[in-house]
Structures are given as C-alpha cells and as structure tokens.
Amino acid sequence: MYIDTLIQQLCSTRRLDQTQWAALLRDAGAQDAERLAQAARAEAIAQFGKKIYIRGLIEFTNYCRNDCYYCGIRRSNVKAQRYRLAPEDILACCAEGYALGFRTFVLQGGEDAGFSDDLLCRTVETIKKRWSDCAVTLSVGERDRCVYQSFFEAGADRYLLRHETADEAHYRRLHPAALSLTRRKECLWALKEIGFQVGAGFMVGSPGQTAETLAEDLLFLQQLQPHMVGIGPFLPHKDTPFAQESSGSTEQTLLLLSCVRLMLPQVLLPATTALGTAAVDGRERGILAGANVVMPNLSPLSVRKKYMLYDNKICTSDESAQCRSCLQRRLASIGYEWAVDRGDSPLLGTLHASAGIVTEQNG
Ligand code: 5AD
Ligand code: FES
After folding, report:
1. Residues 346-357: pLDDT tens digits?
2. Which fold has domain 2-355?
C-alpha cells in the first residue's frame, strides 16, 4: 500500500517531500503508527542505548510581554499570578537538582523585561562556575542577536525556541500581529550560527493545524537541522482565546515524534510534560515512539501552579525529589534508565570537527 511505501522511503532515505509527509500524517492508521514507532524506537536505541537524558526545568519567570493565543501566561491573562524568581532561588533549584542527579538546567521563562539580560548572563555564569560539569539551556524567547551572543559568552550551551508552526497563515492564527514567523526563523538561524545547540518544535493539534502545515513543520526541521525538537500536544487553557478549542491527540503526537526520530536520527527528542498531561503514560509512550529525553520540573513548589501554560499540567504539587523517583520508576517500567550525564547532542562532535577543518583551511 501507498503508506507502506512512504514508511519504507522514510526509513531508508530519511526524507519525504511535502505531499508525502501530508499523506503520511493524514492517512497513517494505528498499525502504520505502530510500525513507525517500532522503527523510531530502534533508531533511538541505536543512537543512545536505553539511557534517557534528563533536563531539570526551572521556570524562573511567568511575566511575558507576548500575547500568544494558546498560552496561559500571555500578557492579557490578568488571572495569571505573576512571579519572578531571584537568582538565589534559581541557584537553590540547581543545587537541589544537582544532588538529585541532574546535569542540565533549563532556565525557561516568558519574555520578561523585569529580569534583565545582564542579570540572566550573571546567573548563567554563576551556575556554570559552581557546577562546571553541567550544561545550561535557556528558553526565554525572541531576543536580539547581540543578546543571544552575550548569553552564549556567559556560558549558556543550548537554546530552546519552538518555531510553533512553519506555515505563515497558521502562525498568524496562533499569534497576534506583533509576532512573525520570519522573525522567529531569523532567531533560530542566529542561535545556530552563534554556536548554541538549538531546539525548535511545535504543538500538535493547535487550532488551524492541518496535515499540510505539519508537513511544512517537518520540512522546516529538515532544513534547520536542529539539535533538539520539542513536540507536545496543544492543550487548552481556560483563560485564553483558545479555551474552547479541542486538545491535540496523544496518538498524533506520538506519530510525529516517530517521524522526527526517523528523519533526524540523532536529534534530542523530549517526551514532554504536555504529553504526560494528555495521557497518564504519555511520556513512557513517547519514549517507546522514539523520544530520548525527559524534562522534569525543578521549580520551587511555591510557584509551580503559576506556570500554567495549559490546564491540568502535571507535577505541580510534587517535590523535585518525588518527580525524580516517579520518573525513575516510569523509565524502569519500560526498561530504560536515567542517564546522569549532560547529554549533549551527538551532532556536536561532528560540528566541532568540521569547525576545526574550516579554521585550518582559513589559516
Ligand atoms: N498547550 C501546549 N503547549 C503549549 N505551549 C504554550 N502553550 C501551550 C498550550 N496551551 C508550548 C509552546 C511553547 C512552550 C514553552 O510551551 O509550544 O513554545
Ligand atoms: Fe512529577 Fe511523576 S514526574 S510526579
């Protein structure tokens, strides 16, 4: 059948064109999805073994100047109780996380002018000095290139900025006019050029998404060749314009994880908190569909319920240590283990190697 041919082509060439992606995403049935998951899982095991990389997520501010229609911490949500951690609070989260076996800290927040770029640089410097065997990831949205450069010079290793959708019209359906897909993509290319390990990604089932827009997402990822790809289901938040929209499906999210694993075999692919919210065993199923990263929350318990991007987010009343043992149990239940490791992208070695060759040629 046609879908079989597409799956075979994807596995052997790692590529499909726009029409083929759209057909696969529209027409794949449960059995096809299972075949893709098996192939993607085998690929993840070939690349990373049965070790899952762990990132500790520190949600350090929920102030945001943006007003994305899907997001619970959008500027217009007057019901959101705003908070901003002090650098000492962030460092305390890192200390707790380090003791629990975390070797990557992800500092995520809204686009908050009240937490200055300079303060963020100094916080990154302190973390890198105090825990020199750890990686720091930033996820603080769109900034000027020179600001990204200063984050990198302060020691940040990685940057997450989901592109959200690679289709212009769909981007406008999800965001107010002040935001543009062009600018979003420029940020991602700049981050890559600066030397960050870069993560892009998107929600599955967001309002207005179609098999065609998803096909564009995959083609954009193919072009960008990011080190990481964050994919989770869209989940409505009650105090946003999308409150009445329906959630993205767990199955479709799993299918996309498998497609991305097969297209970009070495990519770092988290089984996201949103996936764990959509289904109790969502993260385990994500791993079995090709994911190789989990990002448990290390934020202080006092603020967890305030970083509500969507309704019913899991782990908002669990201590970091509880999440650690919960996740360890979940990983063990499917035969995987927690890697106490920075978990860098395998692509990094080749990138550094090729940078070396360029320098030699130039010299
Ligand atoms: N449902 C699922 N994911 C969401 N995000 C924001 N709001 C939602 C939502 N309602 C995702 C976006 C963003 C990331 C930090 O969280 O993709 O990039
Ligand atoms: Fe947080 Fe299970 S991972 S409670």
Report:
1. 988 654 444 433
2. TIM Barrel (3.20.20)
